[in-house]
Write a structure and sequence with these properties.
Elements (H helix, E strand, L loop, with lengths): L7 E4 L6 E2 L7 E2 L1 H12 L3 E4 L5 H13 L6 E2 L4 H7 L10 E3 L6 H5 L1
Parallel strand pairs: 1-4, 1-6, 4-5
Antiparallel strand pairs: 2-3
């Protein structure tokens, strides 16, 4: 759990927010987008966490904005997290990762 008053949610783009086949853009995952918009309205922080870079990343960020989804950080930790730990680790610090490649611990252990 986060040591902040809000939760931090890191979300992947391809196959998660957007039903796409990299580097193309596809249809939006509307239920997830609405969920994230509501989380942000509730004061939680969002991080776009994707392997996209350069022009492909710019297109993804623009696509998200077109779907009213704004992020507090993109492929990076929040500034307050960097300050709190005194460095910017390569691993994104968050309370929840939302990714189409996720494996639940129970599936691994059981």
């Amino acid at each position: 759990m986060s040591t902040t008053a809000y939760q931090i949610i890191a979300v992947d783009f391809d196959g998660t927010l957007c039903y796409s086949n990299w580097p193309e853009l596809g249809e939006p995952n509307r239920p997830l987008i609405e969920y994230l918009i509501n989380q942000k309205r509730s004061g939680n922080k969002l991080i776009l966490w994707t392997c996209r870079a350069g022009e492909a990343l710019e297109k993804a960020v623009s696509w998200c904005r077109d779907h009213q989804l704004e992020f507090d950080a993109i492929n990076d930790n929040l500034p307050e997290i960097i300050e709190m730990y005194g460095n910017n680790s390569r691993k994104i610090t968050c309370d929840y990762y939302i990714d189409d490649k996720a494996v639940l611990p129970a599936m691994v252990n059981g």
